[in-house]
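User: Fold this, then the next.

Assistant: Folding the first:
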Amino acid sequence: MNTRRYISRIIAVGWIVLGMLGLNLSLAQEGKTVRPEIGKPLQAAQELLKQKKGKDALAKVREAESIGEKTAHEVFLIDQVRGQAAALAGEAAVAARSFEAVANSPAVAEKDKRQFLAAAAGQYYSAKDYTKSADLAGRYFKEGGSDKALRMLQIQALYLAGNFAQAARELQAEIQADEQAGKAPSEERLQLLSSAYQKQQNNAGYASTLEKLVAYHPKPDYWLAVIHGMISRPGFPNRLSLDVSRLKLTTATMRNANEYVEAAQLCLQAGFPAEAKKFIDAGYAANLLGTGADADRHKRLKDLMAKNLAEDTKTLGQDDAQLASAKDGSALINAGFNYVLHGRAEKGLGMMESGLNKGGMKHPDDARLRLGYAYHLAGQPQKAIQVFKKVQDAEGTAALGRLWVIRLGQS
């Protein structure tokens, strides 16, 4: 995250406070007086602050601090000027304690209290006291503050303090507010939320946040992460490996030759050489196949695919008459999908719909995944999305369906 930008805005509050003071420390204020031996060094410190001489100003404040038997009002004024001098001098811990003391003082005006709380939160953050920073920021919001930069500083402080659960709750609230307002949540917020869930080993929350990342900020790295997270879940079935490869091919997240080879082999085993060609051609186009020590192996696979594809093209449709008598819809689904792969989408999609309606399959949601993918290949993304939204099986198909909906919604 660009945390420095947020911190800079909060630290700048200290200079807003300086402008607010407008004090003539040698004069009576609301019946209160400041002794000259305290007022003069404080006035000198203020002048030095205007010249951006923080260390010199802090030295003058310490002159005022050395005077004994200070009144509550004198302490209040010293804390204010010390906070600003220490902030400018880079002594964040001193500045934080000073601003917090001012915020806690009964003498502080209610309209100014939030500014001092914000300044204290920023300085505690700079001092790496993240728990105190988060606490002071929380008080700022309880007092009616609404600065969005401070909200992000509070969340970052919660995270760095190890309070991942609270950081996640605050982030969720911010993200939901963005979504309800029709705005895309920022990439930084979603990144931090995903990390907060990871730290808690909240796999469901982590997966959900990754889905939001690919939905709002569709980068290949996020697609890789969300797909990896999905297939790493306990119980994710091996039978969906080809379905995963189809999603990877569409999201440009195939990363090595073995992924292309394994996908092509699965296609050939399933009886879809036309689909195997898609993976092999993509692998060659990416310069991952046909090179290196395995180049000959890749060539043999390509030749086998070409041989199978020629035979499949020649025999396409020969068994159509027998499909109606099949005990379930699996044969219709497979035959229809093959027609789609061969460019005969209208016939193939009709057969697949008939097969799904016939039912009797052990894994009907697997068939819905294939039907949705077929509509995608046929250039009908809205129909594909409708089908993918119907995938319900929690075993792994539902997650694939959701990711397809996200991907096709970005087309």
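Now the next one, as you asked:
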Amino acid sequence: MHPRIHILSSFAILLACTFDATGLGGAAQGPSGDPSPSTGTSTTDAASTTLASATGDAAGSGTGGASTGPGSGASEDPATTAPPLQCGDGVHDDGEACDDGQDNGATRPCTPECAVNVCGDGFPRAGIEACDDGNLDDADACRNDCSLSPSCGNGKLDDGETCDDANQLDTDACIACKKAICGDGYVQANVESCDDGDESAACNSDCSKRVCGDGKLNGAANEVCDAGVKNGAYNSGCNSDCTGPGLVCGDAIVSPPEERCDTLVPLANAACVNVCKAIACVDKFLDCDNQAASGCEINSSNDKNHCGNCSTKCGLFDHCDNGKCVF
């Protein structure tokens, strides 16, 4: 039998016995036959109270009661339980200063911890902070205002620096926080061909590669001249290997067609004049063979075949005397 039905049946029997003992509404009599004085709640009332209590207890032990088991309180409704916080889901939950979802980041306005990116949090915010080491040591590489301490390579122009491009390249316009110049020993890309720190046999003083014919005098390469494309040309001032003045009047070399003679080449009975372009014969001597090498080979004062000039021949005359044909 169901427990609840059993309890109700028991109380019904109890009530029936009570009515039988006392009668309908009659008062219980003592030994003398007088009604007993009332000392508390009537039997009927007590039975009713007992029935209500029992009924309530029975109801409380069923499945419709609030209790879910021995010692348990009110049950929790899963539908009303708050979900755990999820930083990075793009939802600004309680306990989060911000949440930009996928835009959270160590260099973003909202950090991976869903906190606003500020100086000192250890997250260097791009475009705002030069650094952020998250400590209070103002003497290290990153100062407490999130700026870099004075040092070459921090991207800031500090005292004693002419530039700071925040890189370690030695081929750009800024090298070791100094503007690149010819002679610093570093070859600047697309600007210098070489840089030996000074003029060398391979590098000119303007940091161009040395070559005879570049028009630049390089003493380290033992050049005494360099006339560029004119090297080796007559009277250019420089020969083809930049070691001397080249072909010129007075170089002891007759260089035709520009020269007919040279002032340093001895001539018979003549002198080389007109910047090595003509021969000047001494008195009475002629250059009748038109050969500079032989100089003025004819003495016209006594040469029977060239008497007085290169074309007069004395023929039947006995000889030439002082430039005239005579018997």
